[in-house]
Specification:
This is HTH CENPB-type domain-containing protein. The chain is an alpha/beta fold and 419 residues long. It has helices spanning 3-12, 29-40, 46-49, 55-64, 74-89, 96-110, 123-132, 134-137, 142-146, 152-169, 175-180, 269-286, 306-315, 327-330, 332-355, 366-377, 380-390, 404-418, and strands at residues 185-195, 202-205, 221-229, 238-242, 258-262, 293-298, 317-322. Strands 1, 2, 3, 4, 5, 6 and 7 form a seven-stranded mixed β-sheet that branches.
């Protein structure tokens, strides 16, 4: 037989498939101790005695006596996987920093000491966690991998169809009433105001695309967070200042606003969680708004760690993310407040300087200057009109949220529920 014929025959022979590991990600100390004992006493071979633990961990225990067992219990692992699955459904891509923060909270709450420094895992460990649960989480699909080649309208169309699928999948009582009540449809967004590092004056409003940057490279700013609903109700804004100690009142002239502070002035999960518990949830209860409610957030810059997911789930708050490419056309607060403010901020600063003998807008007087524009723009009629323009409510065929096909799907959901 010639060499070429021999090679062609070998190519047709399929190689045996390697059996997939049955490791479930949770091997405890008793499992390793039992496997070590059974192997040393020659009761079982190591491969059978290891049960659900990785073969390498059992080998290390047998040879060196050191035990490397899972840092999570099965319940901890289930909570994290459930959070990751939910984040995928609502269109939230979990940053590694948010994953690290959530894991640290789980470990600290359990009082568990690990090999991680300050209980914060590295990037490699986080990616291995994703790979271990890749099938359940389903982080990538065909549409998301091809979005970069699509136009903005096509990507908004995909977002709309995914939102409809999400509405169909959630299990809530009286779904038709939830979708038809504008009072139960909230949206929250944030904008950064850039600070000149030399003079300290606040000179411009940042674009949404500049709001999701590496914490190690982003610049100091003042962040304003606003929240409204479909009937024109408006919560007091949350203003996040850079710094820790203040020798002045940052909210002077705008006392009804809420305040937070971080090292660089960016919104973090701690401030967001505090705002939800102390401002947003009490406001819903005070106004007797029926639960559950829909809360649209900016997917590019809103921190949603495990604790916020569990808080919202327990309080009947259904989160869904607006993508960064459509914030300017789908976010009512951008239409009625931040976009007009961005184009006219230089005029606001110039007018303030003329009225106050050339004084500049800084952190000291920012709340006072911002209040005038806030009161001018955040009227009930403006908010309702912004919801209509964005398409978040009511749903129109010629608006961005729901295409004709998506709207027909929405009507089918409502009619099916009402029958």
């Amino acid at each position: 037989m010639r060499y070429t014929e021999h090679m062609s025959m070998e190519d047709t022979t399929a190689a045996p498939k390697r059996k997939k590991s049955t490791y479930n990600g949770t091997h405890t100390q008793p499992i390793l101790e039992t496997a070590n004992y059974m192997t040393k006493k020659k009761i079982m071979r190591m491969r059978k005695a290891r049960h659900s633990a990785p073969y390498s961990s059992v080998c290390d225990t047998f040879v060196t006596g050191k035990m490397h067992f899972s840092i999570f219990t099965q319940e901890d692992e289930r909570r994290l996987v459930e959070w990751c699955i939910h984040s995928t459904k609502i269109g939230y891509s979990i940053p590694v920093s948010i994953m690290q923060e959530s894991i640290k909270e789980v470990l600290d709450a359990a009082g568990r000491e690990t090999k991680f420094k300050n209980n914060v895992p590295g990037h490699d460990w986080c990616w291995k966690f994703y790979r271990r649960h890749d099938k359940e989480i389903g982080r990538k699909d065909l549409a998301s991998t091809q979005e970069g080649k699509m136009s903005k309208s096509e990507r908004v169309e995909i977002w709309s169809s995914k939102f409809i699928e999400f509405l169909k999948s959630i299990e809530v009582e009286e779904k038709a009433e939830l979708l038809g009540d504008p009072a139960r449809r909230f949206t929250i967004t944030q904008r950064g105001f850039a600070i000149n590092p030399k003079s300290g004056d606040i000179f411009k409003v940042k674009d949404p695309k500049n709001l999701f940057l590496n914490p190690n490279t982003r610049e100091t700013q003042v962040t304003v967070v606003g929240c409204v609903n479909g009937i024109g109700q408006c919560l007091p804004p949350l203003i996040v200042y850079p710094g820790v100690l203040f020798l002045y009142d940052p909210l002077l002239g705008f006392e009804e606003a809420k305040m937070g502070s971080t090292e660089d002035g960016w919104l973090d999960s701690k401030i967001f969680s505090t705002w939800l518990q102390d401002t947003f949830i009490p406001k819903i209860k005070k106004d007797r708004i029926k639960l559950p409610i829909l809360l649209f957030v900016d997917g590019c810059n809103t921190p949603i760690p495990l604790k916020i997911y569990e808080l919202c789930k327990g309080q009947g708050i259904i989160l869904y993310c607006i993508k960064i490419f459509s914030i300017l056309i789908q976010q009512p607060l951008d239409l009625c407040l931040f976009s007009p403010l961005k184009t006219s901020w230089s005029k606001v600063v110039r007018k303030f300087g003329e009225q106050n003998h050339g004084e500049k807008v800084t952190k000291v007087n920012f709340a006072q200057v911002f209040k005038k524009f806030w009161d001018l723009q955040m009227t009930k009629s403006n908010i309702i009109e912004a919801f209509k323009e964005s398409g978040l409510y009511p749903n129109k065929k010629d608006k961005h949220l729901l295409s004709s096909g998506a709207e027909s799907a929405m009507h089918s959901v409502l009619s099916h529920k009402q029958q």
